[in-house]
Amino acid sequence: MTATRTPRLGERVTAPFGRRRCEVTRNLASGGYRIFSALDPAGPEPAAGQFYMLAAEAGWGGEGGRPYLARAFSVADAALEEGGVRLDFLVQAVGPGTSRLATLEAGEGLWIHGPLGRPFSPPTEVAGGAAGAILVGGGIGVAPLAIWRRQLLAAGVPARVLLGFRDRANSGGLDLFDCSEVRLASEDGHTGHRGFVTDLLAVLLEGDDTSTAAIYGCGPPAMLEAVRGMCAERGVACELAMEAPMACGFGACFGCAIPLRSGGYMRLCVDGPVVRGDEIETALVAGSGH
Known about the structure:
The protein has 290 residues and is an alpha/beta fold. Helix content is 17%, strand content 31%.
């Protein structure tokens, strides 16, 4: 076992070369989603906001050839355990790849490559003088905010959590947040505030305490664009964990290139997936999920 410590806040953790086999240890229902765990025997503990390329050992690329490529997944939690690092992932079955991952059973093999990408930065690096954090998540995008909240808590940084979902069928992952300080919103009104999670953020932004907090978001592109725009209008710094089609995860295919506000492009797999809101023109990335 090579992992020996938890990474510092904002530290980019380097992935070992090549992919490696892990064993699935559990698969639990979480609302309309699934949380599955795998034990990584040789990799390091990831930083919050990093991701892995995942492919099931069996049932991948069947007669029809799908799923073929590995799928990029943000890590929802990680912990050192006997035999390696336990990695938790939140998945919703929407296509051949995610459907196969959602049905993984304990004892099955999982091929992984990671951790990859740029993680969340500490609040003081996002906004000078920030003493806390506001985490805004939507749908399956709540996953990386769960591990980020835990790491912030371990570092003594207070964090408020705002989570929103479309409806009951498209919600879950609350099991990853072991606290009562989560404010919820749902478009169909089945839980919490009836409306968007950005409605909850707007209330906080109207207060006088957001100048001492950094904002972090992950969710559907429309939600991220709303968060980016709201923060830009008020001069509040934010980081967004974004999604784009990825074939490799290490910058070779350029499938995840997005335009920068300053001109040129960045590859989300190596220069992201976490980006500053003021680095990009829009979070409405063509081809992204949700």
